[in-house]
Amino acid sequence: MKKPKLTDASVKGGAPAGKKSVQSAASGGFPALAGIALLLLLGLGIYSNSFDCSFHLDDKNSIIENPNIQDLSRIDQLYAFNKSRFIPYLTMAMNYQYGQLDVWGYHAFNLLVHLINALLVCWLTLLVFSTPAVRDHPLARHKNAIALITALLFVSHPLATQSVTYIVQRLASMAALFYYASMALYLKARLTEKYGPLKVVLFISSIIMAGLALFSKENSYTLPLAILLMEVLLMQSVSLKQRWTDYRVLLVAGSMLVLALFVYMRFTTAVLKPILPSGGNPYTVTSTNYLFAQFPVILTYIRLLVLPYNQNLDHDVAPIESLFDVRSLMSLLVILALIVLAIRQVRRNPVFSFGILFFFSALTVESSIIPINDLMFEHRTYLPSFGFFLLMSSLVFSLFSESNKRLAMLVLFGIVGINSVLTYQRNKVWKDELSLWSDVVSKSPMKARAYINRGVAHWTAGNKQQALSDYTKAIELNPNYSYAAYYNLGVVQSDFGQWDKAIQSFDRAIQLYPGYYAAISGQAIAYGNNNNPTEALKGFQKAIELNPRDAVNYFNRGNVRMAVKQWQEALDDYSKAIELDPNYLDAYCNRAVVYGNLSQAENAIGDCSKAIAINPSYAKAYNNRAISYYNLGKWNDAIQDYSAAIRLAPTNPNAYYYRGIAYMNLQQWDSAITDLSKVLELNPSNQAAFNSRAQAMAMRDRLRN
User: Fold this and answer.
1) 418 and 442 inside one domain
2) Contact assessment for residue 149 and residue 409, using Cβ atoms and an 8 Å cutoff
3) Residue 349: how many CB atoms within 10 A of its CB?
4) For residues 505 and 485, what is the distance between their CA atoms, to the nearest angstrom?
5) Residues 6 or more apart whose Cβ sits within 8 Å of residue 230
6) CA–CA distances in Å: residue 589 to residues 136, 550, 578, 606, 653
7) Is residue 47 part of a domain?
8) pTM of structure
9) Which candidate among 91, 162, 250, 705 keeps its CA 20 to 30 Å from the CA of 662?
10) Tell me, what DSSP letter sits at residue 412?
11) Which domain holds residue 263?
């Protein structure tokens, strides 16, 4: 009779000798370095054409025209600007500090965040497969491959471009960075068996990351829900009913209640206030019609993750007023079916359950009852996409038999390859404002905002007629709420000198938006150019009341007052403009003109000299100072300044004319004739130049005879 073999208690219940145990690999590290290198190189490659993509949309208010990011010494000012998103704005301030408005640095930082997130997704996936509820699952044997594939899907998916290439949406990617880090550190702490310094450090680090997430974007408030899902679905192998009685689950649930109380005290019910029509949108957004619209929006997000075609910066999505609208009701039923499926799979496939429920939970801030003016944005999928990619990679692996796992890898790598090409191509759309908004117009042809923004892009590119056409189309689509289109139309009409039309367009913008400062100022300028100084002065006064720190309105009002010879009032306005902006060159030059009309030539010369000191290449300052010297009879000084003005602006006939007259006063007839001939070359109908040249020729000939 054979003797029974001895059993080593240390491997009781483990794998047969010579084979790697699933449990022994539970705390395994990252996939091979080659896989990590592939992940990083792929991310760099597919975003290599994004580094020169221009600023877009909210980048203007958040970066280009945001004084709060322009001085790193004023951290308090930056914090007051947007407390809930302080951390990303701090990084924008650092970008501005070291690179001003060079887009390369902003894009490099965004891509760095995206690559770090991909590494976190890889680590988080490994940790998920190391949890008690998952580590004995057959899929856990392939956790390294699944972790790498999940991260590759994450880094390559074209839907992420709106969070990576769109600079300001580092808000979404940075929130995800701290969110994922907090989750991973929490799981690592829970999986660390010994209670000691390491476990404490991991928990504290998780809390710090959570705090940074909360100060990056508001969707991070779902983090306790994600922790709760990990506790309930991943950290215990007992029945689902028993899991809810675990003290750790109760502790996490309690922290959620505390956070909910904090959010309520901080934001109160104001976040549920309806949003009136604005920004080209003709509808009011309420808690209910926003929620009902979110059901089909969420399914659209899922469709874009599965089949990323027809991506769009500005999807044309309107509120839905009734839950029984077929789009809302059918979408809700599909979502509920997915949630029920997730719950039913908790014991059999906990990774599937976690992926599905994490996806929906991470969307609960931006796709719930809190109304947001824009009902759909693709960057809102960035955080929840981890759940989708985890589910996708795990599902594909589970569909293939054990002998065909290589085929599963090939399928998933094929998807990664296709997504990489789509991402690279999508970045081309983000290249500049014109390419981006032309893409939006082609996909949202009935949305006024698309035409408004493409019109701005056309205007910036010098395509004025196309800009006019786009603004007109925006007004046609949405005549009652497109105040920005009316304003922009007024700007184009002003450029064309169509002052009456411009006044009407600005007036319509002001009717729709009574406090529209830019339209009020634009209309005042139009009145001034349309020989209606009374209305112009009224408009500038109102604009100044709305924004007393804008030097431009004082300057423009000074121009109107100078035109009607209100010299002292004009002087006061130019002085105020200079007080607000000490480098305002035109204000110095125009104040010099006023000084000249008040017979204060020395003050006029002083102002022009200040302008020249600020910018030695400013032709207008030399020209105006030359006038003052001319009026004082200082011919040589006048000639010297007119010569400088001509060198900088060689096609200005007035500079040649008055320099010619100055030469005549010095009896330098040949030089005078040369200048006056140049005037007639530039302006053949200048009778004064013709007469003066004739006089100079006569004097020269008389001296010769």
Assistant:
1) no
2) yes
3) 20
4) 9
5) 128, 131, 183, 186, 187, 190, 354
6) 81, 18, 11, 10, 19
7) yes
8) 0.81
9) 705
10) H
11) 33-55+101-428
Length of the chain: 705
Q: What is the DSSP letter of 14?
A: -
DSSP class of 63: I
- Give Cβ neighbours of residue 466 (< 8 Å, ≥ 6 apart): 455, 458
Instruction: Report pLDDT digits (tens) over 264-292.
Output: 555 666 778 888 877 667 889 999 999 99
Query: How many Cα atoms occupy the beta-carbon half-sphere of 244 within 13 Å?
Result: 2
Task: Name the amino acid, one letter, at 12.
Answer: K
> If DSSP states are collapsed to H, E and C, what string results for 226-282?
HHHHHHHHHCCCCCHHHHCCCHHHHHHHHHHHHHHHHHHHHHHHHHHCCECCCCCCC
Cα–Cα distance list, 154 to 87, 150, 423, 523, 630 (Å): 23, 6, 11, 50, 71
Same domain, 615 and 553: yes
Nearest to 456, CA basis, from 448, 447, 445, 467 = 467
* Same domain (yes/no): 451, 384: no
- The number of distinct structural domains making up the chain is 3
pLDDT at 232: 86
Ranges in the chain, pLDDT < 70 = 1-31, 237-269, 279-280, 401, 705
281: phi > 0 → left, psi -120 to 50 → alpha, else beta; which? beta
Residue 667 placed within a domain: yes
* Summary count for the chain: helices (H), strands (E): 33, 0
- pLDDT, residue 24, reads 34
Calculated CA dihedral for residues 111, 117, 119, 125, nearest 10 degrees: -150
Question: ∠ at Cα 305 (303, 306), nearest 5°?
Answer: 65
Task: Return the closest-CA partner of residue 573 out of 589, 559, 554, 592.
Answer: 554
Residue 267 neighbours by CB under 8 Å, 6+ apart: none
Percent helix, percent strand, percent coil in the chain, to nearest 5: 70, 0, 30
Q: Which residues of 153-180 are buried (b: 16+ CB within 10 A; e: fewer)?
A: bbbbbbbbbbbbbbbbbbbbbbbbbbbb
Phi, psi of 370 (to 5 degrees): -85, 110
* Amino acid found at 525: I
